[in-house]
Design goal:
Helix content: 25-40%
CATH architecture: 3-Layer(aba) Sandwich
Low-confidence stretches: none
Largest sheet: 7 strands, mixed
Number of helices: 6
CATH topology: Rossmann fold
Number of domains: 1
Mean pLDDT: 96
Length: about 210
Amino acid sequence: MRVPGWLDDTRMSYDTVAAGYADMLRDALAGEPFQRGILALFAELVRAQGGGPVADVGCGPGRITDHLHRAGLDTFGVDLSPAMIEVARRDHPGLRFEVGSMTDLDLPDGSLAGLLAWFSTIHVPDDELPAVLAGFFRVLRPGGALLLGFHAGTGSTLKTEGYGGRPMHVHVHRRTPAEVAGRLGAAGFTVEAEMVHRPAPGVEGGFVFAHR
């Protein structure tokens, strides 16, 4: 699916909802034992490779960046939305956050021990995803850990409202873990695990672990 202007739409939409998004999800992990376990496994995989810098790409207000930092990782966040980065810096002043796009990561080759994209590739159209995954591969060092979290399923929907009722205009692309694993393999990654979490009827989250 091609979505012209998706980057601008995503940036503007999350600028609009940044404050409400942060307020609604600030303590969400406290009630998500499966997600905490998945993040703990990612942290263990990074440490098993000797540790090092970990990028939370599409970090939003920084709640996952902070969670991984508290788990002992050297984390920093990157997000397309300047308003999200402003909230992240306000809420987590001891951590590093930068405005940037996963389509063009401003990071040296092989500089990361780990990369997390936690429900942030969901707005990347199918035709843009190979380039994004190639960028993830480039910035990870050999053996570096990758974790993708995403809405599992098939098809795309247009989200026009969110987080406090504010207007949005973003497409949400659902993909099966098998599809994501296949795309990661095509990008050069070694896929280690595929998971589906069903936190509520009709709701599925997909998670794929891989390494360079």
